[in-house]
Amino acid sequence: MIILVILIALGAYFGVAWSQNLWPLAVDEVVVPTFTPGIDETADWKTYTNSDYGFQLKFTDVWEGYQVRKSGPAIGKDGEALSMASFSFRVPTTSKIYTDSFGKDGFATVFNISVYTKQQWNKTGGGLPLLAKNDQYVFSYASWQDPPEDLVSKNLNLQGIYSSFKFTKQLAWATKPVL
User: Fold this and answer.
1) End-to-end C-alpha distance for the chain, whole angstroms
2) What are 130-161's pLDDT values in tens digits?
3) Which of 77, 133, 136, 138 meets the CB 3.0–4.6 Å disulfide criterion with 121?
4) In this structure, what is the dihedral angle of CA atoms 112, 57, 52, 110, given to the nearest 10 degrees?
5) CA dihedral 99, 110, 86, 116 (to 10 degrees)
6) 124: buried, middle or exposed (CB in 10 Å: 19+, 13-18, 0-12)?
7) What is the side-by-side order of every strand in the sheet holding 166-167?
8) Which of 39, 66, 93 is nearest to 158 (CA)?
């Protein structure tokens, strides 16, 4: 008798579910995710390679005629090296009043990359934006503060350039933070 009541209750339940389109559960569409390889937006950019410290960056055509100036090591008051080297990435400017930190007319320094040993970084560089590090060096960057008027409207794509940083030498470990 109990079994008969249970069967009637289940029949009523499924009958109501069927009449209200709740049963059977139907799947209208199956979506299968597909992997699409990312497009490398930097594929046609120009590449700067530094063989001394084993890194490279990529630049858009807006950087036509750019120069890289190396300076350093930076020496502190006590005569100790504060960094290994600094690289100034410069673009041509038409500004007649702008001189870069090297005192040369016609070029504006857009950003610098400084290279430190781990010991130098821990002592002096920790407050600067970290670009990347490997088992030998720590790389930081600093962008310009006061660009010349003719370069203000140009898209120099600094984030894209910073993101294109990669090591060219195989080293024991290397990390590249998300910018």
Assistant:
1) 72
2) 999 998 999 999 998 888 888 888 888 999 99
3) 138
4) -20
5) 150
6) middle
7) 46-50, 55-59, 166-167
8) 66
